[in-house]
Amino acid sequence: MFSHARIWSAIDALAERHQLSPSGLARRAGLDPTSFNKSKRHSADGRERWPSTESIAKVLDATGSTINQFMDFLRPGQVAGQVASNIPDGVFPPQISSIPLLGFAQAGAGGFFDDGGFPAGQGWDVVEFPASPDAQAGVYALEIQGDSMLPLYRDGDVLIVEPGAQTRRGDRVVVKTSEGEVMAKVLMRQTARSIELLSLNPEHPNRTFEMNEIEWIARIIWASQ
C-alpha cells in the first residue's frame, strides 16, 4: 500500500485528474514548483525520497480532494484518470482492516508492547485503516495527545507507525525510551551507540540518547491531518 512508487503515482494521478502537471500541482498547493518533479524522487546516491505528509495535506486542500480519494489512487493497478469522485460499478475500494490504536499517554505505560515494539497485551482500541495484501504485519496507530508536536501534528491526529521498519536519516519516527517516554521526532543520526532526534516543535529541545536507553523505534508511515 505505501510503497515509494505507489505514493508518487498517486500524486501524479491526482495532478492529472485536475488537469495539472506535477509541478503545477505543487505550485497550486503553495509548494516549491519542483517539489514533485521526477528528478526529486530519488537522491543523488539513488535513495528514495518520499513526499511529506504536510505536502500531501496541502495538495489535498488545494484540490478539494479527500484522503479517501487519495487512498483510491494507491490501489494496485490504479492509473491516472481512472478514479472518479464516486467509485464506479465493478471497481472495489481498498480493503479496510482494523488496526490497534493507542494514545501517546498510554503508550508510555508498560504492558502494551513486546520487546520489539509490536502491539501486545490488553487495552488497545481499534481504528479502521486501508490495507493491502502486502501491508506489513504489526502496523498500528497512535493518537496524538497535547500540543508538544505542533505545528506538524495536532492533538487528536493519528499516526500510523510500522515497528521493525528500516529507518534512515530524515525519517519521522516514534521512539520509546526505557524510562517510558514516548515521542515523535525526526531521526537525524543513529550509530551503534547513540541516536540523535530533531524535535518537531521548535519550542522543545532536540534529544540525544544512548542506544541502551531506547526501548524501541517505529517509523511513521502515515498521519491523519
TrEMBL record:
SUPFAM superfamilies: LexA/Signal peptidase (SSF51306). InterPro entries: LexA-like, LexA/Signal_pep-like_sf, Peptidase_S24_S26A/B/C. Coiled coil: none annotated. Residues 25-49 are annotated as: Disordered. Residues 100-221 form the Peptidase S24/S26A/S26B/S26C domain. Keywords: DNA-binding, Transcription, Transcription regulation. It comes from the Bacteria. This is Phage repressor protein C with HTH and peptisase S24 domain. The lineage of its organism: Bacteria, Pseudomonadati, Pseudomonadota, Alphaproteobacteria, Hyphomicrobiales.
